[in-house]
Design brief:
By secondary structure, the chain is α+β, with helices and mostly antiparallel strands. The protein contains five helices and five strands, in the order H-E-H-E-E-H-E-H-H-E. The chain has a single domain, classed as 2-Layer Sandwich (Alpha-Beta Plaits). It is 34% helix and 20% strand. A five-stranded antiparallel sheet has the order 4-1-3-2-5, with helices on both faces. Strand 2 and strand 3 form a beta hairpin. Helix 2 packs antiparallel against helix 3. It is globular, with a radius of gyration of 15 Å.
Length: 156
């Protein structure tokens, strides 16, 4: 079985707690850090799945950026679900959708696990959102964030 675990993956889960109405920043990475989301249709599929999560009142998205090999997502948890359940939904739906587009089945899209951080009430959410959407600039993918197609924020 081709299964890669992130170093310290178990440590990422220690102390993980999911709380309704709490804001979280979640980062997850593609399998083998492949640049899957360089393909416009795959990136848009993931974006639509994030929007579905909002429409289903699971999350309320505040900001996100889909990078070629990972996702940063800032959202408020709206239902009494564990973060691991939400990420299983997002990863599962996007894997099925993208595998269907690639005309294949059962191929891994995502690495196991994810990183999360609960945002404290006193943190400046606008600064967190700006940090997220500026990822393409810091990565040197664009010189102007407006030129990068895969991001959004309720503030910007």
């Amino acid at each position: 079985m081709d299964f890669i675990r992130a170093p310290g993956g178990c440590a990422l889960r220690k102390g993980r707690y999911s709380e309704v109405n709490r804001i979280y920043l979640v980062t997850t990475v593609t399998h083998k850090r492949l640049s899957v989301f360089n393909q416009l249709s795959y990136a848009r599929s993931l974006v639509n799945i994030l929007r579905d999560s909002d429409r289903e009142n699971i999350t309320s998205t505040l900001a996100w950026v889909v990078m070629p090999d990972h996702l940063h997502w800032l959202f408020e948890l709206k239902r009494d679900l564990m973060l691991s359940q939400i990420m299983r939904i997002i990863k599962g739906r996007s894997s099925r959708e993208i595998n269907c587009q690639k005309n294949r089945t059962g191929q891994r899209l995502w690495q196991a696990g994810f990183h999360d951080r609960a945002i404290r009430k006193e943190e400046d959410l606008l600064s967190v959102a700006r940090y997220i959407v500026a990822n393409p600039l810091r990565a040197g993918l664009v010189s102007n964030i407006g030129d990068y197609p895969h991001w959004d924020s309720v503030w910007l």
